[in-house]
Design goal:
By secondary structure, the protein is α/β, with parallel strands linked by helices. Helices cover about 40% and strands about 30% of the residues. The protein has three helices and seven strands; from the N terminus they run E-H-H-E-E-E-E-H-E-E. It has helices at about 10-40, 50-70, 125-130; strands spanning about 5-10, 75, 90-95, 100-110, 120, 140-145, 145-160. The strands form two sheets. A five-stranded mixed beta sheet has the order 5-4-3-7-6. Strands 1-2 form a two-stranded parallel ribbon. The radius of gyration is 22 Å and the shape is elongated. The relative contact order is 0.16.
Length: about 160
Amino acid sequence: MAEKKNILTYAGLKQLEEELQDLKVNRRREIAQKIKEAREQGDLSENAEYDAAKDEQRDIEARIEEIDKILKHAEVVRDDEMDYTKINVGCKVRILDLEFDEELDYKLVGSTEANSLKGKISNESPVGKALLGGSVGDIVEVETPGGVLKYKILEIQKAD
């Protein structure tokens, strides 16, 4: 089975690379020091600090493996090749919720970068899928368990 491509913006790629570098260089060194100090305390069978440090080490290594896998299958969206007449990953969009007459701003990103609290929605989410390929003035419909939501695309621009 082919691996799924991880669509990333350039900013998302840089953020993951920085996190990976920090984990490999700084966090590994910190955790090795914690484990060394815990070992020096003696009996490892009843050493809570040692167990906690080993758990943290396992979490760090798992995150490193996860980021490596994401980056291995990453497809970076290039700003200079984007057409801002249509919505694509990497665009910032302003839409109007036709039911509540409320304007919403989103940045469309790959699923790896999605963070609804920061206004970043995935291209794989129901709203993201509906918006993809849309143009200013289009009305898109989103199927949800609660019914159909309608949005009018007001603006498409380059994301910061």
